[in-house]
Amino acid sequence: MTIVSSKLLFSLYSFLLFIIIIVSQAQGQPNFLRNYCINNNGNYTANSTYQNNLNTLLSNLTSNTQINYGFYNFSYGQNTDKVNAIGLCRGDVKPDLCRSCLNDSRVLLTKLCPTQKEAISWYDNCMLRYSNRSIFGIMDTSFSYYKWNNRNVTDVAQFNQVLGNLMRKLNEIAASGDSRRKFATANATLNFETIYGLVQCTPDLSGQDCNDCLERAISETPSFFYNKIGGRVLKLSCNIRYEIYSFYGPTTVIDQDETSPPEEEKSKSSHTIATVVPTVVVVAAAGLLIFICICLRKRKAKINLQDIKEDENNDIEITASLLFNFETLRVATSNFSEDNKLGHGGFGVVYQGILAGGQVIAVKRLSTNSGQGDIEFKNEVLLVAKLQHRNLVRLLGFCLEGRERLLVYEYVPNKSLDYFIFDPINKERLDWERRYKIIGGIARGLLYLHQDSQLRIIHRDLKASNILLDEKLNPKISDFGIARLLLVDQTQVNTNKIVGTYGYMAPEYAMFGEFSVKSDVFSFGVLVLEIISGQKACCVLHGQSQEDLLSFAWRNWREGTITNIIDPSLSNGSRNEIMRCIHIALLCVQENLVERPIMATVVVMLSSYSIFLSVPLEPASIVGGRTRSLRVRDMQSEGESINHASISDPYPR
């Protein structure tokens, strides 16, 4: 009996120990900084082929290679059940800690997102992402997470200047990295304080895409961390962080001879998961396959003149006057010289050029690495070539030669509106009379797009940087890369891909993907408030606090202190006109699109005092109503303590 009891007790003890281990693995993972369970791409059912493929892929993700630089991307499965996964560790994280972080991620992420085919998570040390769609080598900034330290800096202007220089330097270093790592850290001294910075991209991105992703993240820091001593931006394809204390270690060393795992390891891996194929150049034997994939991708992305001619919605007659020779544009821009660079957008660089006859032009050279660039190119050719209005930038032609895609516009010499209204010196050049004319010109340009042209076009990205000013400071709406064409009898369209600029998006578009002419009306209202106040939509500073422009304008309207909204440089402007424009702007940004006027009514309101203006309702607030349900952007405040403990809950962007 004693022997039997001992065996029984030992068996019971072993069973309990097994249960404890299983439970600890399932529940003992540390919490993520943030994770998203993405519903847009569908769900899977329990014990389905997709779930089995996902589990197989994730369980072998880090054990399939000896690569020690912290980047893993693999696929498993076929057709609709194929799973793609990316694991990325911070460049200073050692291999064993990297694998541990990713293993923790796979356990917790599949638990938190038990049915979604696409999900992403971030820890301090690593990021894990999987999807049923292609995610390799594609810059994706559709999801972002923001976190900051609540402590304020002492000298905001000087701090931001030093920080900006540091982050741009790190961007350049990281973007120049190879297919194994795109990561950089450094620090900069400010008086008696040191600022530490870190930037990183998934190394399967091209250098240009990495640069663009980091530039976008860096450009967002003034909006959210304007006067904060620390902050981070986490995106699907890149991330940045800065603090006034050292938060990273030495970057792990990459063996220059390390190009593939040992033969023994590759053989071992093939028994574990035979169809897993790396998609970056890490296994020499896969080089040919990768080359073929790249060629196929380029072939798929390539756009040619016949595509434009055969587009079912196209009624442009492609004539010689619209087509430019690449060599002509290369000579006109002095071989696309940096000295001729006018600006750099998400899809390419804009250069000033001079044709042989002396005509000054602006040439947008789309990035050859951007798949979206083809869509933007075709969109602008098909839409803008049909539009002729004094308040729209005129497309002179385009060029298609090999992989080169260029758009040629009329040259607008006075840069964009944001260059003036947000600059303390340049804004003095825009008195109220000029600003009033700019508001009216933008309104007439939008009216033409919505109603008076042969098409009905929704711009979808109306903002100060997309309003160019000619030599007489007349406004011209530009950048139709994400504009959408509506049929004559259409009033609203839905989309699963929400694009545009934070702060200008109408609530129904940002939350549900529903856009209409009223979406542009909302953006116009935000833009008018920016023109009048000289403040950006995302942040109005008053004393030591800040709030979004719509909340600020509404609060002062309600409290009868509307003069607080007006830019002090407009002291000599007509108060009646300014007040009326504020009133019209508040009508345009009402949360319910039914309450917003159409642009035809707005134009009449601006030009006639005989039109009665209704009382506006509370606008959609950046922090309030319109973003409470947003699922694509998150922000979080970070406490002052050195262990980064959060002191407030995240709320949607």
TrEMBL record:
Q: How does it sit in the membrane?
A: Single-pass membrane protein
CC terms in the record's Gene Ontology section: plasma membrane
Arranged from A to Z, the UniProt key words for this protein are: ATP-binding, Glycoprotein, Kinase, Membrane, Nucleotide-binding, Phosphoprotein, Receptor, Repeat, Serine/threonine-protein kinase, Signal, Transferase, Transmembrane, Transmembrane helix
Q: Which residues form the Gnk2-homologous domain?
A: 32-135, 141-247
**A Gene Ontology molecular function term of the record:** protein serine/threonine kinase activity
Q: Name one Pfam family in it.
A: Stress-antifung
- Where the protein is mainly located, per its record? membrane
Report the transmembrane regions from the record: 276-296
For region Disordered, the annotated ranges are 634-653
Q: Which residues bind ATP?
A: K364
Q: Which PANTHER family match?
A: CYSTEINE-RICH RECEPTOR-LIKE PROTEIN KINASE 5, RECEPTOR-LIKE SERINE/THREONINE-PROTEIN KINASE SD1-8
Q: What is this protein called?
A: Cysteine-rich receptor-kinase-like protein
Q: What is the lineage of its organism?
A: Eukaryota, Viridiplantae, Streptophyta, Embryophyta, Tracheophyta
